[in-house]
C-alpha cells in the first residue's frame, strides 16, 4: 500500500494524468511529448530517494532529468518501486527503463539493453558495526552472516566468491532496503553487509547507528548503467540516451551532478573512483 501511495503522489506532482489513470500507454498525440516512465527504487539515497514533499530526487533522477533537457521529445515520469520487484515491474510494462544504480552484469546485458555509456562508477565496501575488531578483510567474513539484497550485483558477486573459494560465509537475503540490512547489523542478527558506503553512512546516521566501512582488493570498481527492456522501443531509448550521456560526460554535467550528490566527489570515470579509494 505504501508503494502505491507514493507512486500516486509522484504522478500527480508530475502532472501525468495519463499514467495516474492506470493506463500503460506511452503514446502521445502527434507533436506532443512521449511519456517515458522511469522505474527507480526511491529508497537508496543519495542515488535515488523520495523527498518529504513526495518528489523523486537523487543522482539517478538528476541524470535522467539532464538527459531530458537534451531530448525534449520525452517527458519523464518517475515511478518509485521496491527493489525486489523492480525487474518484474519493468517486464510487466509498468515503466520503460530503470535508473537505480544498476551495475553491469553479464546476465543483465544478455537479457536487457544497458546504456553503453556508464553514468557512474562505484565500488562497494564491507560495512559492519563500529567497534568490531574482527573484520579487516573479506576472508574475515568466513563463519559470519552477511546481509545481501536479492538480485543485486554485489550479491551475485558474493555468491560466486563463496562458491569459488568454498568460504563458509552465510548470506542472509534481504529485500535490498539498506535500512533493513543496517537494522540486522545493529541488532547483531548479521555481522556485515557489502554495499556502497556513501549510501549506508547516510542511512546509518539517520537511524542513529554507528558503522565502519573497509575496502578490499576483491571489491573492484564497477560501472553503473541505465537499463531498458530488449524491445524495439527499448533499443530506441538506448540509442537516444547513449547519445545524451556522451554529451553530459563531455560537457561536465555528469561530473557536476556527481559532486552535488556525492559530497564533492566526481565518480563519473573509472580513474576518478580508483584514485579516491
Which key phrases capture this entry?
277 residues, alpha/beta, D-Maltodextrin-Binding Protein, domain 2, six-stranded mixed β-sheet, 11 helices, 23% strand
Describe the fold and architecture.
It contains 11 helices and 14 strands. By secondary structure, the protein is an alpha/beta fold. The protein folds into 2 domains: 34-120 and 224-275, Periplasmic binding protein-like II (D-Maltodextrin-Binding Protein, domain 2), CATH 3.40.190; 122-214, 3-Layer(aba) Sandwich (D-Maltodextrin-Binding Protein, domain 2). Strands 1, 5, 6, 7, 8 and 14 form a 6-stranded mixed sheet that branches. A 5-stranded mixed sheet has the order 11-10-12-9-13, sandwiched between helices. The radius of gyration is 19 Å and the shape is globular. The protein starts with a helix and ends with a helix. Residues 1-23 have low confidence and may be disordered. Residues 35-265 form the Solute-binding protein family 3/N-terminal domain. InterPro entries: Solute-binding_3/MltF_N. This is Amino acid ABC-transporter, periplasmic amino acid-binding protein.
